[in-house]
Amino acid sequence: MPDAPTGVSRALREAPPDRVVEAADRAIRSVLGASGTVVFVADYRINGLWPVLDSRQPDAAAHALQGPLQRCFSSQQPVRAAATDGSCQLYLPLSVWGERLGVLMVEMPEEPPESVVRRATDIAGEVALALHAADRETDRYRRARRQERLSMAAELQWELLPGRSVSHGSFQLAGQLEPAYTVGGDHFDWSLDDGRLTVTVLNGDGIGLTAALLTAVTVNAMRNARRSGGGLVEQAELASDTVYYQHRGHRHVATVLLELDCATGRAQAVDAGSPHLLRLRGSTVSRVPLEQQLPLGMFAETRYALQEFDLDPGDRLFVVSDGVWGADPSGRETYGERAMARAMRATRLQPPPEAVGTVMRELQAFHADADLRDDAVVVCLDWQGPDGRAD
After folding, report:
1. Which partner from 83, 105, 238, 344 sits 20 to 30 angstroms from 27, CA to CA?
2. Which domain of life does this protein belong to (predicted)?
């Protein structure tokens, strides 16, 4: 079956965007001799995987992140589950450039040899790429992801995100927003260009739709400067001026802007009143010492200065908003005093997409599983060194 990925690729390209799953099923049955397939997508909270079924089938049920589904999604490796009748379910990660979309389950009539598993893994990559592209042309896959209605503010925020994770030879990066279905002003953005990674994390002023609109303006102003070739200072200053001349200092956005040289680990930063930046080096958690400057939009013509620091291979950075750092649901010490460091250390063996989930779960437990009182954003960045191998 040397042309297996090619045959599936053609079928996916020719399929309407809302029928990628059906096209994949037909092609995989034909190419691999499978007896069936199921595409699962991760929900907004990443605490369950949901089958993409026809909208006329209301009995779609969540599959909790456990068993072979969980092992596949977490490890990003193929997982086999043999049945007593000799058949086998093959679970394959659906991911694109480090963005974890879900899992493809392929039902095989018998235990497949390793060569078939490799072909199936390649096919899953083709399916993931097709789903990633089709997601902009149909609402079908987004409906499968959401298990309750998003607020208008959350709809804006999720549409504005670049993704939830991305990987490169020298780094891994992931972020998460909570409360996922009602988040307002907190946000993150990133872009990789010519070996330089730009990351911004924002803590927008206000709540609900008002905060989301303010964040949308700020993010797009920074993108405008960045896409025009501007560095961090120009991005911060254009965004600050844009917010100021719209709101005359009555609204502002606390922001941290980072740019990482992926070859050297040298980082530049603009700390504009910012979310909190912490480094995990080995088992030691420390604040990255940055001089805090004015939040974006407080005054006209505010000027910003660059600061620099170095990362060692294996360093992990967390950027968290006030909704994480300053959480104090019962009037006791804030989450950032000690609980945040404990949560960070607990993530040492986890990749960033798992690590942000761990910190968010610990934050939820800190709130005694009650709804978060404030928006929360967690971004995790691992720099693995220029050759991709941490010391």
Report:
1. 83
2. Bacteria
